[in-house]
Amino acid sequence: MTPPTGLGERIKIEKRPHAQPPCEVLPSELIAEIFELTSNPPPFRRTPDANFTSPLLLGAVCRRWRTIAWGLPTLWKYVHLVLSIEHYDTRVDLLEEWLDRARDCPLHIVFRVPMNLQEEFMEWCDDGPYEVFDLFAKKRVQWEKLDLDLIAQECIASLEEGKGGLPLLQAVTLNDYANEDLDVDLLKDSPALRRLSLKGGSHHLRFCHPPSCAALTDLYLSSLSMDDTVSLLRETVNIKSCYLKFIDSEQYFAFYDSDEENHLLSFPFLETLVINACSSNHMLRLLGKVPKLRDLGMKGTGYPDLPVLDRFFKEHDRKLDTFHLTTDTSMEIDKIRKVLSHHSKTLTSLSIYHEQYDTDAVLHVALHKQLLMPIVSHGKPTFLPNLHHYEYLPPEWPKASMECVARMLQARWRLFRAATQTAQPKNDFSVRLPASVRLEVKQLLAKEMAEGLRTNFDLVCPRWL
Fold this sequence. Notes:
This is F-box domain-containing protein. With 465 residues, the protein is of the alpha/beta class. The strands form three sheets. The protein has a 14-stranded parallel β-sheet with strand order 1-2-3-4-6-8-9-10-11-12-13-16-17-18, covered by helices on one side. It has a two-stranded parallel ribbon with strand order 5-7. The protein has helices at 7-11, 22-25, 28-38, 54-59, 63-70, 88-102, 118-124, 130-138, 153-160, 226-235, 250-256, 280-286, 306-316, 333-341, 361-372, 403-420, 438-444, 446-451, and strands at residues 78-82, 107-112, 143-150, 171-176, 182-184, 195-199, 205-207, 218-222, 241-245, 272-276, 295-299, 322-327, 349-354, 376-377, 380-381, 389-393, 430-434, 454-459. The termini are far apart. The protein has 18 helices and 18 strands. The chain has a domain at 294-465. The chain is globular, with a radius of gyration of 28 Å.
């Protein structure tokens, strides 16, 4: 029986001489270069399997690859160790060999303690994971990036015993999981430090000597005492980005209220400031001159006092590009509009989160009526005419209808489309919403999305990040 036309050609097997795989033909130097180009920091994880990263996987392919990978120090610069009780001794041996193979390369070190193992590990091993920190300390002068979970003062003491300064250190994240206050004297000799993230827990991180902050541009502080927060901020005059979270300021301002003028902090290069779950009233009162502030976020349960925010904008004459506002049922729509009006001509990106599940739907609707603003001048809305990105987290209970949001976006999209027919737009028009409203919004904005309105439904309800 003759097969259908063309089928015989498709099933015919051509016999060819045996050819070597490309990886066997390529020179070792070229393979090494490919390995280096594909070497990336491991993804963030807290599970033990995160230890097995690039060089071990490459070395498992064949003997030749293993020889190349084992002799290439740059593959071993990323050290990602997740603590495991069951395999602790193996982890320590692996870490020692790993660091030896890195030779003199700058090191990116990540040390994670799974949340469920912290207390269990300390009970299992009275000495704690200090062998790990002793090995890190021996490579102290090679640290370039450091991200560590700390479960006891001895962890820091082990790191501080290393000899030499920290000439290469550029980024540090310290996560406090100890059941005590931790005294840190680790970063006082780090002239290249640019990014510092301190995440306290139920207790505080305290500095015996402040870090070297002359080159610092990015600062993240969470759950620190207000005194330590202010001390660090006074040292970081060159920062461009600052994130403050869970900073308790009540006692500090009760003590310093009478001498407030002498405690203002000025940041000539600060562009981005986020205040999350702190008293915005207190935090804004700390600020002196911030001539370059363009991006302000007021997040979390410490929702802003709108009159204080309004006064801050008037006093500093700041015009924002990006603004994030967390609303509360006590807020009045007129006051929200008044705050936004300060930036009506400059604001290009606006994010609004409703803090509570049961936020009054009246505020939800009124807010989007204000943003709709049917009054148009020269083809643009008179209120926030340059807005091209909108991020919105609606109330969750009772479920808020997205019709008012859709009407506002439809009107602004039409104006955006009309304006871009005569001039090339600098930005696309985009909106970011939670996945829970995906179906409703896709139905309401089907035409606009087909025309090019960019929509993302990846917004996660923080409660609170």
